[in-house]
Amino acid sequence: MALRILALIIGFALLYIPILSVVVYSFNASRLVTVWAGFSTQWYGALFENRQLLQALALSLRIALVNAFIATALGTCAALLLARVRRGLLRHVVAAGTATMLVIPEVILGFALLLSFVTFGELIGWPGNRGALTVTLSHITFSTAFAAVIIRARLAMMDDTFEEAARDLGAGPWTVLRTVTLPLLAPALLAAWLLSFTLSFDDLVIASFTSGPGSSTLPMQIYASVRLGVSPQINALATLMIGAVAIGILIATWILQRRRHKNEARLPSPH
Amino acid sequence: MKTERLLGWLPFLWLVLLAAVPFILLGKVSVAEQIVAQPPFTPLFGPDGLQVSAAAYAGLTEDDLYLRAYLGSLRLAGIATLICLLMAYPMAYAIARAPERWRLPLLMAVILPFWTSFLIRVYAMIGILRPNGLLNQALQWLGVIEQPLNLLHNDPAVVVGIAYAYLPFMVLPLYAVLAQQDRNLIDAAADLGAGRWRRFVTITLPLSLPGIAGGCLLVFIPAVGEFVIPALLGGPDTLMVGRVIWNEFFVNGDWPRASALAVVMLLILVVPLLFFERLLGRRS
Questions:
Q1: pLDDT, tens digit, for every residue of A73-111?
Q2: Which residues in chain B have Cβ-Cβ distances shorter than 8 Å to A21?
Q3: Could you give the number of structural domains in chain B?
Q4: What percent of chain B is predicted at pLDDT more than 90?
Q5: A125, pLDDT greater than 90
Q6: How far apart are the two ends of chain B, measured CA to CA in Å?
Q7: Cα B155 to the chain's mean position, in Å?
């Protein structure tokens, strides 16, 4: 028992101390990041005057938003196929493709995608320039796989009697999907959307390969300045990003809890 | 079934165009030669018919840098995977055996860092390992060391960075198998007089092997090709393939050689990739 608690304490310390140290030092008055010289928010001020960083932030947000919607939609299609179709070429290709996308080293995927954009550009003249579009297409490619895993897990646990009931009552396949399956999947869809957004917002390697001149995403900007060493401005930026994630997760949990309460109130208890 | 099959065409076409075709092109460019043009490699079908060259692959054997990079990647990723497993197993075990109402919050606490930027987490490691970083300061304050240790920009820093950044990937599959285990088996073994250690070695551990395999593959495969961690935490002599491919492309502009490096890396990863795919397929 004591050993288990010790394992948890050590594990969580390892996970959280690095992140917390970034947050604490973002409020440090000194430029020397390691010496504590009093509380200050000056680095946040400097951050909001850094135009390059703000532009990169806007680009990353745009890419992440478009990516999240398309990847969730494609991931839902892939999950339905994987969960409900047992055989066939279609299933095998999608199964192998998504499994590969989950673990394939980013450098390989980024470079391979760049090669295909160059080749497509030569053959059919599309996509012409590399930039936001090519980065978004690349992000959708791997985000879809992660979205599919989350949605498929939910499909596997889901009670299919509701869908059967709808079919028995004469609903067509599209009506069942729209009015029964998708609403039941909603929590997984939300989780898949959030994960796709984060994966895209976070990606450095694949964006570096597939973006063009003049379209730097936020991770590319962060990497460029982090390579030169620890900087208080990046600490401030990191703190804002961590805060945004925490708020996002709180809101998602709140929505899910509220939904659950509402459903519990509406449905008669099975017991 | 028909609806699912119809919808399945969308991800199928997407994956063929933007996952299968790119890997085929990787092979195609790896047998081209570097030229000064846009794009900087010879076409597969030239004026005199098919042009296939082994120059890029031959280039990989010229310098033992490439061999050392592959071996270095496998070694560092292997050690990091092992450390990650040793850190994650006790955590996953403790969470799986925790009281019911504690499990979900503890699991959330493991996943939470995974949602914060990977780049930021690696960056945070710099702050910990620097000569005047948190770890050195703590050790000096405790009186363990007099002078700060060189903890950053070397191979151990890369190993620690990988183990730290990928920890959630290891904990989740381990938790999944440990939480499913039938407690009656443990109770039965205890009734028959097996001690705590014996129960763990003969029941818990063997039953958790699928989780161990899943977690290790989920960490090992991407870690072999890792770029960010060796670039930020590694030293100038830390050789990993991900970084070599990056430099071959961004610094030397040698697309065929970068392709050949990627093709060889894919060949090395094919076996673990197939294992991973079968593991995913079996779970459903």
A1: 999 999 999 998 888 899 999 999 999 999 899 999 999
A2: 124, 127-128, 134
A3: 1
A4: 52
A5: no
A6: 17
A7: 16
Residue B204 falls inside a structural domain: yes
For chain A, how are helix, strand and coil distributed in percent, rounded to 5?
80, 0, 20
- What is the mean pLDDT of the segment spanning B92-112? 88
Cα separations in angstroms, A246 against A242, A243, B171: 6, 5, 21
- The two structure tokens encoding residue A226: 């982090």
Domain presence at residue B7: no
More confident residue, B50 or B257: B257
Query: Which of A115, A206, A220 has the most B C-beta neighbours within 10 Å, making it the best mutation to test the interface with B?
Result: A115
Is B24 inside a domain boundary? no
- Asked if the model's pLDDT at residue B94 lies above 90, the reply is yes
- Residue B120 forms contact with A (CB below 8 Å): yes
CA distances from A85 to A82, A92, B165, B275 (A): 6, 10, 35, 22
Per-residue exposure over A17-33, b if at least 16 CB sit within 10 Å of its own CB, e if not: bbbebbbebbbbeeeeb
Q: Using pLDDT thresholds of 50, 70 and 90, give the confidence band for residue A271.
A: very low
Task: Report the residue from B91, B93, B262 with minimal CB separation from A111.
Answer: B262
Residue labelled with tokens 């869908």: A163
Looking at this predicted complex, what is its ipTM?
Answer: 0.89
What digits encode the pLDDT tens for the residues B153-175? Answer: 999 999 999 999 999 999 999 99
Token pair of B186, please?
A: 């443990």
Instruction: Tell me the pairing of strands B45-46 and B49-50.
Output: antiparallel
Q: Does domain A51-218 have CATH number 3.40.50.300?
A: no
Write out chain B residues lying below 8 Å of A82, CB-based: 284
Token pair recorded at residue A189: 């869809």
A173 vs chain B: nearest CA distance in angstroms? 7
pLDDT at A268: 55
